[in-house]
Amino acid sequence: MLEDESSLAKHRKVLSIVGFGGLGKTTLAREVYRKIQGHFHCQAFVSVSQKPNVKKIMKDLISQLPCKEDFAKGIDTWDEAKCIVKIKELLQDKRYLIVIDDIWSISAWNAIKYAFPENDFSSRIVATTRIVDVARSCCLDGNGRMYEIEALSDLHSKILFFKRIFGLEDRCPDVLKQISNKILKKCGGLPLAIITISSLLATKPVVKDEWERVRRSICSALDKGRSLDGMNSILSLSYNDLSPNLKSCLLYLSIYPEDYVIVRDILVRRWIAEAFISEERGQSKQEVAENHFYELINKSMVQPVEIGYDGKACACQVHDMMLELIISKSVEDNFISLAGHSQTDLVNHHGLIRRLSVQHIDQELASILANEDLSHVRSLTVTASTCIKHLPMLVRFEALRVLEFQNCESLNKYDMNGIDKLFQLNYLSFRATDMSKLPSGIVKLYGLETLDIRDT
User: Fold this and answer.
1) Arch. (CATH architecture) of 13-148
2) Which residues form the NB-ARC domain (predicted)?
């Protein structure tokens, strides 16, 4: 990435990392980013996902790049084209490092690539994708290189597996070595599969019968090569091993978009507001909820990010393969109803709507919601929606305990009348919206415990 003796050394270069889901593309990109970022004037790491919001991606980039205080003035009114022009202007005279994670289509790459100028400062772009054609497209300018990430070897699979369970790679009892080989064969060299299963086994008695039971529970699909069915089998096994409380806490994460950074303190407060958490063994609800958060990390159900000085994660992310699983479980159990998400649609739901997550609302979706019974909705989460005015009136959500608007543009155009009738509301967030004045009805929300108005 840094050393190049050719005459093209100063040209901008693209490295595209391609491979099956769960192979560690994002982990590799993050490690490269961490190791070399000090050689560049500026750097940023952004995720694209299956349903890219180009404007949001551009705003995320700008938020990570050094710029003058008034550079981003009026950014909420910029369209995609202006965002791209402004980023190009910002990067034109700098050596930059940009990681673009999880690109799903050539069109998504084409929509954002013009923001990154060819400026002969030896700038670097790292892109990750599951799709070979997308990886090739990222490298088409002649200064690119495609790296196809491979599955772990048998040796490295064992090292990862045993270190997660025993702390050291050579501490596996002889009686478990044969069954370990059979389990690892099913994992197919996929780091995500190995970490998930080893995290599960780390909580089990170190006895052959227990490990044999886990081996039998894993679908044999991975024996014949990497497959989504096989990976889902392994993730499902770990999910099914969770306690009921932890299952609810994990399923709740399906309200968030793909690649979303979920802040611990916000999530903990939401779990408490949803009544998922009870005091136990002399611990407060806050302490129990935080323990649940770290337990999900320790079981490798979510991935830690933003590690603090104390070594604890301040936030987490859900791997896209795990997200697909918990969305499927949430919809199947009618735990959460999704609207405007790429994976599913509100029209597929059954039963009462109890928790509603909206990522994009337009006139069509508004018409569907208009015909739904919303009186049983306990939580409403609206994320990064631009047409918020189409959302039904708040008076229709009379049972709300949790109400969150986040990164919603033009929220000040939404009619907040009726918010004073939400007598059960415990948690209210206008974080990162354009709200300039709080609704007067908030003073009548006597049960409100959390009001988040950061970055408004």
Assistant:
1) 3-Layer(aba) Sandwich (3.40)
2) 10-161
Residues of each domain in the chain carrying CATH 1.10.10: 243-324
Tokens, residue 76:
């909420």
Check pLDDT > 60 for residue 7.
Answer: no
Distance CA 426, CA 403 (A): 8
Cβ atoms 158, 33 nearer than 8 A: no
- Beta pairing, strands 42-49 & 96-103: parallel
What is the average pLDDT value for the chain, to the nearest integer?
A: 85
Give ranges for CATH 3.40.50.300 in the chain. 13-148
Q: What is the dihedral of CA 55, 56, 57, 60, to 10 degrees?
A: 120
Give ranges for CATH 3.80.10.10 in the chain. 336-456
Q: How far apart are CA 371 and CA 367, in angstroms?
A: 7
- Break the chain down into helix, strand, coil percent, rounded to 5: 45, 15, 40
- φ/ψ (deg, to 5) at 358: -120, 120
- Give residue-wise pLDDT tens across range 106-159: 999 998 988 998 888 889 999 999 999 999 998 876 578 899 998 889 999 999
Q: Considering the domain 336-456 in this protein, what is its CATH number?
A: 3.80.10.10
Is the Cβ–Cβ distance between 434 and 410 less than 8 Å?
A: yes
Question: Measured between alpha carbons, how far apart are the two ends of the chain, in Å?
Answer: 39
Per-residue tokens: 112: 């954002």
- What is the residue whose two structure tokens read 């159990």? 333
Structure confidence at residue 224 (pLDDT): 45
Residue 228, phi-psi category: left (phi > 0), alpha (psi -120 to 50), beta (remainder): alpha
Domain 243-324 part of CATH 2.60.90: no
Question: Whole-prediction pTM value?
Answer: 0.79
Residues in the chain: 456
- Cα–Cα distance between 73 and 406 in angstroms, integer? 20
